[in-house]
UniProtKB/TrEMBL annotation, chain B:
CDD domains: TM_PBP2
Domain ABC transmembrane type-1, residue spans: 95-304
Disulfide bond keyword on record: no
Pfam families attached to this UniProt entry: BPD_transp_1 (PF00528), BPD_transp_1_N (PF19300)
Organism classification: Bacteria, Bacillati, Actinomycetota, Actinomycetes, Streptosporangiales
Record protein name field: Peptide/nickel transport system permease protein
Main location as per UniProt: membrane
Mode of membrane association: Multi-pass membrane protein
UniProt subcellular location: Cell membrane
GO cellular component terms, semicolon-separated: plasma membrane
Family affiliation: Belongs to the binding-protein-dependent transport system permease family.
């Protein structure tokens, strides 16, 4: 998760240990309230408020994450695979299996027998092939092209079996599937009719089908009676509205105008807890960071990066941007991760920072940079600027760019410092995507052989202590090279009223639709 | 009269044309493009070039504009580069929301401003007049993005009467529709009340000092009759002008309020299109907004004649 409209500076909640202690939903979540007890009951229409409205309903365009349209995608198209948010372990859903026998060079996807789209046509291996192959078209504008591009070829073996050959061995390619649109399959026949026809009738095999959509307004879904996993879905329908303002979404929940929402702001998460709402937090690693561009001065100099890092008091940043409610990313992996190590990502040392700034200035390289932030993420840039203003020999300008300019700024490395995020349950592919020297999404321009080796090994090593060791090496290199300053975990949070049951997140804050229910 | 009308319409069309040229020029000068916006993290040079070619954006801006204009003159405003939705369909879909908000907001503003102005003008300088002026000053300095959250806090959260966000179409019932429209309309009305109240109050005080008003009072007519039968119409010139211009602005899209309340109106569409650099949708919206503005100004001009016969004679001459 790097760059793009998902990169944002949010606000924070309590420490992770606390987050993992209590329970609200089923995803290792926490909250001051819990959902209804007992067996799920059928009926009712759930009102959800999501962050951003899709431009259209093509699964290739929908974004499978908390800030995107994950709930909508899961509702319309179901999920081939999901994962356990605690362990990251991938499991089958519409797919019975997704296995490799050659360490990730090829995979076999086995679909459940008898899967049908909502129009009665079969969801077979050919349908998956069509969806996965088209995702590779760059002109489609899919956010999932990186994941799809790992696929060299697909071959239909029979109605329920698809053989997938990858461009390079990727043992955990299932992780790519659940983090992207690869998880969502739509009817090829309807997709071929063009965007307009598809938007009018987006045919998938998910628990819900489209009832109506007023662009810019509301989107209504109705129960798909032919859903494969009866008695799910429990709801008669879902009404979805959209608001980019986390506060407005929370207000709507608190006032009883909505039942569930995704919240990407730690400050609002804290409010939701105080208000007694259900809060389901997904434990993730990595986090949001201040990306320092090594492709040009001043941050092509390691000393400049180290100086800025040492100069920043992350607790004070947390106070400035989250009123102290944030969860500072002190280690790369959460304690619940099998890859956890206790390497500290950041050390605040005011004296050392000033000394380094002075040394750089004496060498004719005073640290002066522009912090490019994006609309809605100004707080972090301003807070950094305020903190650094207390030091000599360092100057910071703040520049606010539009989201439409994200691609150019990150893709062409046209920034000194900016906000970014790398968030994961399993570090592969997210970390390699952000920091591998050959990755097109390596916006900070980091190029380190040892880090590359560790990330490649992490990608190709199946599991166990060996994998933990290589990621420990990777984290050490990230700490030593300071490609960015991790200042907080990314909040992947579902907030719901106490009548909502079945809150279940997977991937990067992707809320499943079929298990949701409303108590009477 | 007819010649005057034709000239005004011709000028209006020229204004619309110039506005669309300016829109094309401005968007061409801003950094980033629709391809970069769509591709986001995957915006490599090759991908951007491929998508630009697919969308027809590899042509120079003047060529893109002429292509668009050719279609527009035949009634085809094109399709969104981002969603592929036909522009005309998108605008038609959103007009009812924006128009309802604009007219409802203006109706609330006009009603409140008229009461404020009449009460104030009847007793200028009195305590109640000063109090109303103070309220008006507060309203004037309360923009929509401040009024909106305040109204939400008091009327949707503390007193959960209205929804915090979202829109209910008329097909869901009049009550539900007005319920979803009331808070945003009120947020729009707040500043408009102040502007209209001040204008109308000043003009009414001036008119009430005229000889023909004294004559009417001398004939024993009641205060209210004199106010609404004799004073109101000649005092409405400035009010109609500002009402028309402001209504034109609101019909073009109540941007802040629509975004704040997540309403499916023209303002939200325009903002979304500009931020995603969807030039085709922007051109369509700009054409629509400019046309609404021009039409509102024409209506205001011609309404002077209805308000005062002397103006009608001048226009005819």
């Amino acid at each position: 998760m790097f760059g793009s409209p998902r990169m944002r500076v949010a606000a924070v909640a309590g420490p992770l240990a606390l987050l993992l202690a209590a329970c609200g939903g089923t995803s290792g979540s926490t909250g001051h309230a819990s959902g209804p007890s007992g067996d799920p009951v059928s009926g009712g229409v759930l009102r959800a408020v999501l962050v951003s409205e899709p431009h259209n309903l093509d699964p290739a365009i929908l974004q499978n994450n908390n800030r995107g349209q994950a709930l909508l995608g899961n509702a319309l198209y179901g999920t081939l695979l999901t994962n356990d948010p605690e362990t990251g372990e991938v499991s089958g859903d519409m797919a019975e299996g997704f296995t490799t026998s050659d360490s990730g060079k090829t995979f076999v996807l086995t679909l459940r027998a008898g899967l049908k789209f909502s129009d009665g046509t079969p969801l077979d291996a050919a349908a998956v092939k069509y969806n996965w192959d088209r995702l590779k078209d760059p002109t489609l504008g899919s956010n999932s092209i990186q994941d799809a591009s790992l696929i060299a070829s697909t071959e239909v073996e029979d109605g329920t079996t698809l053989k997938v050959t990858l461009t390079r061995p990727t043992p955990r390619f299932g992780g790519n599937v659940i983090l992207s649109s690869l998880d969502w399959i739509a009817s090829p026949a309807v997709l071929k009719n063009g965007a307009q026809a598809f938007d009018a009738d987006p045919v998938g095999a998910g628990p819900f089908a489209l009832k109506d959509w007023t662009r810019g307004g509301a989107l209504s879904l109705t129960r798909n009676p032919s859903y494969w996993n009866a008695p799910k879905p429990y709801l008669d329908g879902i009404d979805i509205t959209f608001s980019s303002k986390a506060d407005q979404r929370f207000n709507s929940l608190q006032a009883g105008g909505a039942d569930v929402s995704m919240i990407e702001d730690w400050g609002v998460v804290a409010k939701a807890r105080t208000a007694g709402l259900q809060v389901d937090v997904e434990p993730v690693g990595g986090g949001q960071y201040i990306a320092l561009n090594q492709a040009r001065a001043p941050f092509d100099d390691l000393a400049a990066r180290q100086a800025v890092s040492a100069a920043l008091d992350l607790d004070a940043l947390n106070l400035a941007i989250n009123q102290g409610n944030g969860e500072v990313a002190d280690t790369f992996f959460p304690k619940s991760s099998p890859l956890y190590n206790d390497i500290k990502l950041h050390s605040y040392d005011k004296a050392k920072a000033q000394q380094m700034f002075d040394q750089l200035a004496a060498a004719g390289k005073p640290v002066s940079f522009t912090f490019t932030t994006f609309q809605g993420s100004e707080k972090i840039a301003e807070a950094v600027q305020a903190q650094l203003s207390r030091y000599k020999n360092v100057t910071v300008e703040v520049e606010v760019a539009e989201w439409a300019d994200t691609g150019r700024i990150l893709g062409k490395h046209d920034f000194d410092a900016t906000v970014a995020a790398v968030t994961f349950q399993d570090p592969d592919p997210a970390v390699a995507r952000a920091f591998l020297s050959t990755s097109p999404r390596n916006s900070v321009g980091i190029d380190d052989g040892r880090l590359d080796d560790a990330l490649k090994a992490g990608s190709s090593t199946a599991a166990g202590d060996a994998r933990k060791d290589v990621y420990t090496t990777a984290v050490q290199r990230l700490v030593e090279l300071v490609p960015g300053i991790f200042y907080q975990r990314e909040p992947l949070v579902a907030v719901a009223g106490t009548k909502v049951g079945g809150l279940d997140l997977y991937g990067t804050g992707s809320l499943l639709a079929d298990g949701l229910w409303l108590s009477k | 009269m007819l010649t005057t009308a034709v000239k005004r319409v011709a000028r209006g069309l020229l204004v619309v044309l110039l506005v669309t040229i300016a829109a094309q020029a401005l968007l061409s000068l801003t950094p980033g493009g629709v391809a970069e916006g769509i591709l986001g993290e995957n915006a490599t040079d090759e991908n951007i070039a491929a998508l630009n070619a697919k969308l027809g954006l590899d042509q120079p801006p003047w060529q893109q504009y002429l292509d668009w204009l050719g279609g527009a003159l035949h009634g085809d405003l094109g399709s969104s580069l981002v969603s592929q939705q036909p522009v005309r369909e998108a605008i038609i879909e959103r007009i009812p929301v924006t128009f309802e908000l604009a007219f409802l907001g203006m109706a609330i503003a006009l009603a409140a401003a008229t009461v404020f102005a009449v009460v104030g003008a009847t007793r200028p300088g009195s305590r109640i007049d000063r109090a109303l002026n103070a309220v008006s000053s507060v309203f004037l300095s309360t923009p929509g993005f401040v009024a909106g959250p305040l109204l939400v806090y008091f009327l949707a959260m503390q007193l959960p009467v209205f929804p915090v966000l979202g829109w209910k179409p008329l097909s869901d019932g009049l009550g539900a529709n007005l319920g979803s429209a009331f808070l945003p309309a009120l947020a729009i009305a707040v500043q408009e009340i102040a502007a209209l109240h001040r204008l109308l109050r000043t003009d009414l005080i001036s008119t009430l000092g005229e000889d023909f008003i004294a004559a009417a009072r001398a004939r024993g007519m009641s205060g209210m009759y004199v106010m609404f039968r004799h004073a109101f119409r000649p005092s409405a010139f400035s009010l109609v002008t500002v009402l028309g211009i402001n209504l034109g602005r609101l019909l073009g899209g109540t941007v802040i309020v629509e975004v704040l309340f997540s309403l499916p109106g023209c303002g939200g569409l325009l903002v979304q299109s500009i931020t995603s650099r969807d030039i085709v949708m922007v051109q369509g919206m700009v054409t629509f907004v400019a046309t609404v503005y021009v039409l509102m100004n024409l209506l205001v001009d011609f309404s002077y004649g209805l308000l005062d016969p002397r103006v009608r004679k001048v226009m005819t001459a």
